[in-house]
Amino acid sequence: MNGAAPAGAPAGSGTAAFDAIAPTYDASRGGTARAAGFAGQLAPLLDPAEPVLDIGVGTGIVAAELAARGHRVYGVDLSPGMLAHARGRLGARVAVGDAGRLPVRTGSVAQAVSTWLLHAGPDPRAVFAEVARVLRPGGRYLVIPARGMRPTDDIGRIVGALEDRLDPHGTRQDSPGLLAPIAAAHGLRYEGPASERPAVFHVSPEGMARAIADGRLFTGAWQIDPADLPLVTDACTRLRALPEPWRPRVREMADFVMVFRKV
Ligand SMILES: C[S@@+](CC[C@H](N)C(=O)[O-])C[C@H]1O[C@@H](n2cnc3c(N)ncnc32)[C@H](O)[C@@H]1O
Hints:
By secondary structure, the chain is an alpha/beta fold. It has a domain at 16-149 and 169-199 and 252-262: Rossmann fold (3-Layer(aba) Sandwich), CATH 3.40.50.150. It contains 9 helices and 9 strands. It has helices spanning 16-28, 31-42, 61-68, 80-90, 124-134, 154-166, 176-185, 205-212, 229-240; strands at 52-55, 73-77, 94-96, 109-115, 135-144, 188-203, 216-217, 222-223, 249-262. The strands form 2 sheets. Strands 3-2-1-4-5-9-6 form a 7-stranded mixed sheet, sandwiched between helices. It has a two-stranded antiparallel ribbon with strand order 7-8. The longest helix is centred in the first third of the chain and has 13 residues, at 16-28. The two termini are 30 Å apart. Mean pLDDT is 90; it is low at 1-13. The site of S-adenosylmethionine (SAM) has 23 residues, from helix 3. S-adenosylmethionine is lined by residues 6-7, 9, 15, 18, 56-58, 61-62, 77-79, 82, 98-100, 115-117, 120-122.
């Protein structure tokens, strides 16, 4: 998703960004409405008889919604600040851990999920290698991407181009086109998108320019290198040069679940 909506962390910078935004994370990302929406997309794809491993569980807001639907959810996250909130929701079922080095036994997991993780900094090759290790044969990894489908409206084109300039190697992309070959290299077959849920939101070019002007993309979760600020300034200028920059655009995107199966 583009712009002032969700979430990432500076690649390679550890968890500082998420520790810092943990107290406001839930409210700034759509609160329980987002979490309930995601849980509603994931739940029909999960076996209620098997535990679920939520990789990058964050504050546990999505995991708690899955638990409310009868699933036994365990969580791992790198950020102690985010996990402190998850502990309040899930108790001892959450632990600090790196998605690229899961503290989980080989072949012990029937199903795992990640929502808004793979754009947020971890190396997807390391994550898929670990998911392939911990899943049983036939086990599934369900991923809700943050930016799997970029909005293609006039704001989206400018912000998308900015993201590409800031992240030329695509380490913050979590589209099927990028992830499916990585998964396949680790023995996880991409079975396609599922549970598509269209979403509509409103933002003006001016609003977007203000949201990103100081280089805090995705409401603070992606703090860009100050040396790259001119790229942001340039994008803001382009946003403000669009026709009627104060007029909110109706922006359309779709949340969907990527289904990977260990073959
Ligand atoms: C955008 S948040 C999403 C949190 C939660 N899944 C949700 O949807 O609300 C991304 C989360 O990924 C975590 N994260 C980033 N890199 C990680 C890694 N290498 N291992 C485990 N968690 C990581 C962050 O700490 C953060 O909690």
